[in-house]
Amino acid sequence: MGSESSESCLQSFRLYETFSNYYIIGRDKKKTFWKVLKIDRLESSELKIYEDSTTYREDECADLLKRLDEGNKKTGGLKLVTACYGIVGFVKFLEPYYMLLITKRRKIGEICGHAIYAITKSEMIPISNPTVRTSMSYSKNENRYQKLLCTVDLTKDFFFSYSYHVMRSLQKNLCEYKTGQCIYNKKCVWNAFLTSEIRNTLKNTLWTVALVHGFFKQVKLSISGREFTLTLIARRSRLYAGTRYLKRGVNKRGRVANDVETEQIVSEDAAEGRTMRISSVVQYRGSVPLIWSQNISGFRKFKPEFSLAPEQHNYEATKLHFENLAKRYGKPIIILSLLKTRGKKRAEKNLSAAYAKAITSIIENLPEKNHLRFCRWDLNTHMYHRRAIQELKQLGEFFADTLDLTGIFYCHVPQKLYLEGFLNLSYLDENNGQFYLENLNAHEDADNLETKVGDGVGSGDVYRKYGVKSTMSQKGVLRTNCLDCLDRTNIAQYMYGLVALGRQLHALGFIESPNVDLKNPLAEDLMKVYEAMGDTLALQYGGSPAHNKIFAEIRGQWRPAAGYQDLMKTVQRFYSNAFSDFVRQDAINVFLGYFRPQLGKLSLWELDSGQRFNGGRSSTKRSFSDSDIHSRGDSTMTSTDLIHNQPLSKELQGGSMSVPDIPTQPLSDEAQGDDTSILECTPEVSTSIRQLMQVDQSLRSDDNHNDEHRDVSNHSSLFDMDWHSSSGNSFVEANDRCPECKDTIDQMKGKFLGEYGMSFLNWVFHGEALFHGS
């Protein structure tokens, strides 16, 4: 089981240099073959790479190095620069190219015997010899770009595998594998741009590793004396990547901010010579798929103002988003919105209503077979009236219905498969030897490229060759969102994972009933893993760990203590949003190739904020704060008392959310954060809401669970459910809910005063202006 495939995989490298060239010597894990790569150092601003077609033995490679040393004695000979474990890519700013190398790695787990690694150290090495560099190589802007790229810390939350497609789900790897595909086109491969030149030149990927950004955790757990392995993977998309207030909503291509696919894998430790039983379930989170933003100009308010864009018309971007999900995961798509529908804050309520209105419009024009289903669950409101365990149990019932519709993946993997391996990482098509290149400007769907790659072997190839037996498959996916898709979303994803865990263990034969209760020790073990994932994803997008008040309540932690911890996280989050996120967004844009420096063009920091941060959208002329929306009247929501006393369709007929004028200017696809185009959504027929209503009655909603708010009228494919703030950072509201915390505010301000300053603390605690003046 512990043995991994090394077929066609170079896993260990050494970088040597002469005056005129770099030489990289790579070998496989078992030391059966060696390859040589040469990089020209006498070019000041071009990348010239040559691969030796010869495959060497160890003694032959040693002899080659000896001859290279002797042949370059006059200019200093051959010198070892560093040992390394793969090329992350090549990047150019204004003149020289740089090579990014993994110099230290750490094994963090394995899937089907294939090792998964994290980076513990990396280096960025200039390629050109100092003697051929011009003054531009040492310019202020060149140094600034270097420092900017280095702020993308490859040792945090990046992982890779030489022999397993960790950017794809287990089900896709085992059941939908095709030769001839280029996995660097996948949306979760973050170094696609950095590796594009070497891959296009060499027509293979032997020398590079595909980096995934997100979260990976593998733990050993047990139940009834039997041990199993739990793996939790979060894969963050690169297509509309960025930080909290700088990337919101959906872009014109249907790509959303904070797009993360989460996969939970459960596997048994197979005995020697026996098949391994393994199961996985995938869920998804992403920003509300409307074109919306929050005005961060000057960060004058604690919570920036909301705005919806006028190009919302016909919800084309929203349609494209759900069309992409259906292509990627199948049907049905179960949409769980945790946005507020009640309470004092009207901005989020109006966003929630606009979202429901968009889904209503889309469903009315979709064929019935698409099975797009929508449910609202105000987590904040429910948690105010009920205990956390009660609320999670209610969510669990909804998730049980969801899993009845989507199913889970379960299969038997023969030992031959995980010992020999099944992934051809050179991506040379077996039929015609062609290599399918990535073109960042090509109009291809990155999520569905495998359906377009010519005559590659079909998905049955793995089945026929290795005898993989799949007895269950997942069709469709749960899509969860709150405002930031961080705190509330992570709570819901944990509960979904717990319900799925029961079914996975039941399929593997570990338990008789497909249920794991919240009081089961496994629930606490799973909570720790999801809590770690939530903190990691929140740091990446929001700048602080997640707010975990609900987890703390389940553990019985003293409520004021939990509130104090969340308060510290809130200060950290908003400090990061106000002062650090701009640099982080710049670094992400350069790393992903969405901004490419050019001589004679404006530098990144000379662009206006609209071009630089908002994907080409300039700052809004008008936007809505809570007070602004309130002063204009509640045209979208009738009243908090009526939300559960009339059908949602009637609620949405009450009016539409006012839309401010937003001047826009187009940018290239790269600047928009997308390198793919999307097919038009052309519904075949129109299906009535009433028809879809009959299909969706099995999904429990807020009305089904609460007699006190039960609505006897049907909500068709839309359900009203409700719950907790995504950021948990409204202190007025938090203090109202936790009176014990009020007395500690002054003490907390005193604790933070030395680090943050009084104006910043007043902004956080009381909503005062951060910067004064006009």
UniProtKB/TrEMBL annotation:
Domain of life: Eukaryota
Entry's Gene Ontology cellular component terms: vacuolar membrane
Listed Polar residues bias regions: 634-648
Organism from which the protein derives: Lithocarpus litseifolius
UniProt keyword list: Hydrolase, Membrane, Vacuole
Reactions this protein catalyses: a 1,2-diacyl-sn-glycero-3-phospho-(1D-myo-inositol-3,5-bisphosphate) + H2O = a 1,2-diacyl-sn-glycero-3-phospho-(1D-myo-inositol-3-phosphate) + phosphate
Protein's cellular compartments: Vacuole membrane
Keyword ATP-binding annotated: no
Listed Basic and acidic residues bias regions: 623-633
Span list, region Disordered: 614-676
GO process terms (BP): phosphatidylinositol dephosphorylation
Membrane topology note: Peripheral membrane protein
Any one Gene Ontology molecular-function term assigned to this protein's record: phosphatidylinositol-3,5-bisphosphate 5-phosphatase activity
UniProt cross-references to Pfam families, sorted A to Z: Syja_N (PF02383)
Protein name as it appears in the record: SAC domain-containing protein
Subunit and interaction comment: Component of the PI(3,5)P2 regulatory complex at least composed of ATG18, SAC/FIG4, FAB1 and VAC14.
Domain SAC residue range list: 149-543
